[in-house]
Amino acid sequence: MACVPSSSSVMELANLISQSIPKLQDESSQRANDARENVIEACRKMLALVTSPAEMLKEMALIDRQNLASLQIINHYQIASVVPLNGNIPISELANKCGLPVDILRRILRQAMTYGAFSEPEPGRIAQTDVSKEIPRLSPLLTYQLDVCLPSMVRLLDWLKDIDGEYTCAYQIAHDTKDTWWSSASKRPELIENYGKYMALITSGGAHDVSYVLKGFAWEKLGDAIVVDVGGADGFVGIRLAEEYPNLAVIVEDSLGLKDSADDNIPQHLKSRVVFLPHSFFKPQSALSRDADVFLLRHILHDWNDNACRTILQALAASMKPGASILVAEQILQNPGAASWQRERVMRALDMQMMIQFGSKERAYEDWDALFMSVNPPLEIVGCVHPAGSADSFMELKKRA
Hints:
The protein is α/β, with parallel strands linked by helices. It contains 18 helices and twelve strands. The strands form three sheets. The protein has a seven-stranded mixed β-sheet, sandwiched between helices. A three-stranded antiparallel β-sheet has the order 1-3-2.
């Protein structure tokens, strides 16, 4: 039996939505973004209020998983790149271009239309929508989440049933390997290349935008300094730092497989100050990197369990010159209810993904502090900055005296 929501609760949410809508056009982007988040959260809460618990659970079990299945097919076959941006295309022609049976494609696309991807303006003809037009741009994210992470997700139960067995996470069961994701990807260049594009995508806007790196630490106070971007992929963060701060020299460290991509990505005018150095962060730093003033670890440690994190931090601590810092840019988990509902949804989803994909986790402040202090010598948090709007906090570490 459906739960009848109180009229006062629904009216409160309706009033909040009504009050927030005019602010969506505000010239201040932060004010408009806050209003947008308020509207989204209020709409979600209102939907939850008027949906029965049984309806909600049935929709999760039946509909949500089919949404992911159709989206995976659309992304894999690049269907959104074949459908014209204007006008429409016969589904028979679309099926032929994509190499799929007409009936199968029709059923998949009609299911996708229920969440706004594509439309059928007349029987048998497919047209774009705002949702479907976004799919090609988001392809690196969709490929990683749907082709790599989704199979891992459905094997979580199998992993938990044998949690002390030979596999360290659900990813290994799903992909039939004893390797970590990183080891597997290193053997398949297309996976590493796509992951780099995925990282660049999610850091070019929103709560993970690379601009927050500039706001999370007083870079201007360093003067002439060397920064090592540990696990810095193709250098997109290091490049941004070098562009903003002419006194900084940046060493980008990552696997050898990313060297060509990094060399292509670093602009010619920055090549004297931004260099790529193949390096494993589990090993001590090279002689060149030991002169660094700051070692930046952005979105690295949440991919690893505590023991692996200690190895990474220990290698850095052993290589740091006196006065040098480690800057850790990571999400800090908050207690349930402390963040907005939407932020909490994202936060908990990412924590689950770390468990499933890497056997690791997102961490609360107390977890981070305990982890840093467990290194020998201990690393002490001497500063923690959380820029407004950022998903990440920036924790500065120094060796404890």
